[in-house]
Structures are given as C-alpha cells and as structure tokens.
Amino acid sequence: RQRCWADGRALRKLPVHMGLVVSGEEPSYADMASLVVWCMAVGISYVSVYDHDGIFKRNNSRLMDEILKQQQELLALDCSKYSMEFANQDKADQVLNCQSTLKVLSPEDGKADVVKAAQNFCQLVAQQQRTYTDLDVNVLDNLLSSTNGFPDPDLVLKFGPVDSTLGFLPWHIRLTEIISLPSHLNISYEDFFSALHRYAACEQRWGK
C-alpha cells in the first residue's frame, strides 16, 4: 500500500480517469481486479473497465467481489472509502463524493451517451433554447459531460492482440493517451506502473 501511494506521488502527472480495455483475450476477473485496486491505491479517482463482449458488466458482482477481496488482502484498504458505480445508473452524488469510483462498461454505453446527448439537444431546440445551427463539437462535448458523470479518460490501457479499442467510449477518447500492453493476464504491478510512467513522461500537444 505504501509503495503504491509513494509511486503515485512520485509521478509528474497522474490520470484522473483511466480506462482498462480488454480486446481479443479471455477476461480474467482476478487480474482485472488487481489493476483496479492498483489504480485506486496510486490515487486515480475514476476507473472504467471495458470488454467488447460485455462479460465484466454482465458479471459485475463477481468482479466487485474480487476487487473487495484484493483490497483487503493486497493493500489492507478500508473498503468503505471506495465506491462502486456501474454505468447508466443515476448516482452523480456518489461519483462526486467518493475517493475512487469504478464504472464497468460494454459497447452500448458509449453509444447510449451519444444518443442521450442528441435527445437533450433536440429538446433544447424544441424549447427554443437552442437552434440546430448551435450544434458543434463544444456543445456536444458539454452535453455528453452532463450525461456521463465521469471526466473523459486521460489514459487508456489496452490489453490484448487486437489493435483497437473496440467501441470503448468513442467520443470521450478523442484526446486520450492510449498505451497498448500484450495482455492483462498475469500482469505485474511493475508492468502497470511502467505504463503510468510512460504516460507521465509523454507530452500531449492537443492537436497542435
């Protein structure tokens, strides 16, 4: 626990929101739980877990049990400090007040955010609070932020042989740093921290 906390403090920058994306390999609950617990321990506030087949989301109670077990066994953390939130549940107050929050996502979640944002904009047009010519990147981004409840991911760790994020939050990762790792199976803390170190060292030019 102390090592993780010190490692997080030592980095030049730490992602506020990290995505953990499994692509093209069998999901492992134990290994994904380790990654989530490490994220929490180094001080990452928001974590999203995603696989294209929605296995983690369909079995989110199994993943949650494994995370709670590893919090206690690996880090001796007080689990009451950490909150679990699943996508498409209206718990914005929980997101704002907890120390670390987890979302477990599947492909429909990113699409649903875009649909909901479009519906909200159409409602504003119908109420004559907006015109259709007002719609641009910034307006859509604000609408998506209001429906999503999470900040956009700063960093995505993509695990597996498929060179794609396979539909993970397609709008929200426009400016996200993506680091590919061979596999999440049997991943070590050293591999995880090495990826964080790479992120901390990268210079993001925001399209400039």
From TrEMBL:
Keywords linked to the UniProt accession: Angiogenesis, Developmental protein, Differentiation, Endoplasmic reticulum, Glycoprotein, Lipid metabolism, Magnesium, Membrane, Receptor, Transferase, Transmembrane, Transmembrane helix
Predominant location category: endoplasmic reticulum
Family affiliation: Belongs to the UPP synthase family.
Quaternary structure note: The active dehydrodolichyl diphosphate synthase complex is a heterotetramer composed of a dimer of heterodimer of DHDDS and NUS1. Interacts with NPC2.
Signal sequence bounds: none
Protein name: Dehydrodolichyl diphosphate synthase complex subunit NUS1
A single GO molecular function term of this UniProt record: ditrans,polycis-polyprenyl diphosphate synthase [(2E,6E)-farnesyl diphosphate specific] activity
Top-level class of the enzyme under EC nomenclature: transferase
Function according to Swiss-Prot or TrEMBL: With DHDDS, forms the dehydrodolichyl diphosphate synthase (DDS) complex, an essential component of the dolichol monophosphate (Dol-P) biosynthetic machinery. Both subunits contribute to enzymatic activity, i.e. condensation of multiple copies of isopentenyl pyrophosphate (IPP) to farnesyl pyrophosphate (FPP) to produce dehydrodolichyl diphosphate (Dedol-PP), a precursor of dolichol phosphate which is utilized as a sugar carrier in protein glycosylation in the endoplasmic reticulum (ER). Synthesizes long-chain polyprenols, mostly of C95 and C100 chain length.
Pathway: Lipid metabolism; Protein modification; protein glycosylation
Catalytic activity reported: n isopentenyl diphosphate + (2E,6E)-farnesyl diphosphate = a di-trans,poly-cis-polyprenyl diphosphate + n diphosphate
GO cellular component, one term: endoplasmic reticulum membrane
A single BP term in Gene Ontology: angiogenesis
Record membrane topology: Multi-pass membrane protein
PANTHER family: DEHYDRODOLICHYL DIPHOSPHATE SYNTHASE COMPLEX SUBUNIT NUS1
Co-factor(s): Mg(2+)
SUPFAM superfamilies hit by this protein: Undecaprenyl diphosphate synthase (SSF64005)
